[in-house]
């Protein structure tokens, strides 16, 4: 059994130039990351051939563009994104947002930019 994991001891990386991700679990079948996006940050439109994803907002309001829909997800709310759905997340607020990204299976080599 592994020890406890948190932002304090998890592997961390930067993405999108100014966003942070902490890898809480990383196996071929399941990925769990905690991410921080500053105000105005956005990712690029993409999809995953195999991975389903569940985003759970810990703080702030995240704006998701999923196919032709725009959905705002607030603190303590979550949204499921199915494999092959084109999507991106944007922080359109004036403060940072923090959320969990749970992917099954892992998104390693499964991200296709649109």
Write up this protein.
The protein has 114 residues and is mostly beta strands. It is 0% helix and 52% strand. The chain is built from no helices and eleven strands. The protein has strands at 12-15, 19-27, 30-37, 46-47, 52-59, 62-66, 69-73, 78-81, 87-90, 97-104, 112-113. A six-stranded antiparallel sheet has the order 1-2-3-10-5-8, with no helix packed on it. A three-stranded antiparallel sheet has the order 7-6-9, with no helix packed on it. A hairpin with a 2-residue loop joins strand 6 (62-66) and strand 7. The chain starts with 11 loop residues before the first strand and ends with a strand. 17% of the residues are buried. The mean pLDDT is 96.
Salient structural properties:
114 residues; mainly beta; 3-stranded antiparallel β-sheet; 0% helix
Short précis:
The protein has no helices and 11 strands. The protein is mainly β.
In which range does the helix fraction lie?
A: under 10%
Shape: globular
How do the SSEs run, as a string of H and E?
Answer: EEEEEEEEEEE
Structural class call reads: mainly beta
Which sequence of strands runs across the widest sheet?
A: 1-2-3-10-5-8
Mean pLDDT: 96
End-to-end Cα distance: 40 Å
Radius of gyration: 13 Å
| Tally of alpha and pi helices | 0
What about the largest sheet?
6 strands, antiparallel
Strand content: over 45%
Poorly predicted segments: none
Q: Tally of extended strands?
A: 11
């Amino acid at each position: 059994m592994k020890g406890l994991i948190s932002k304090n001891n998890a592997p961390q990386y930067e993405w999108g130039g100014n966003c942070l991700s902490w890898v809480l679990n990383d196996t071929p079948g399941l990925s769990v990351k905690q991410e921080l996006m500053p105000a105005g940050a956005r990712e690029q439109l993409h999809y995953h051939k195999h991975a389903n994803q569940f985003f759970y907002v810990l703080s702030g309001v995240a704006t998701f563009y999923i196919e032709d829909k725009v959905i705002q997800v607030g603190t303590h709310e979550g949204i499921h994104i199915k494999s092959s759905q084109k999507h991106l997340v944007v922080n359109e607020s004036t403060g940072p947002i923090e959320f969990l990204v749970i992917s099954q299976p892992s998104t390693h080599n499964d991200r296709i930019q649109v």
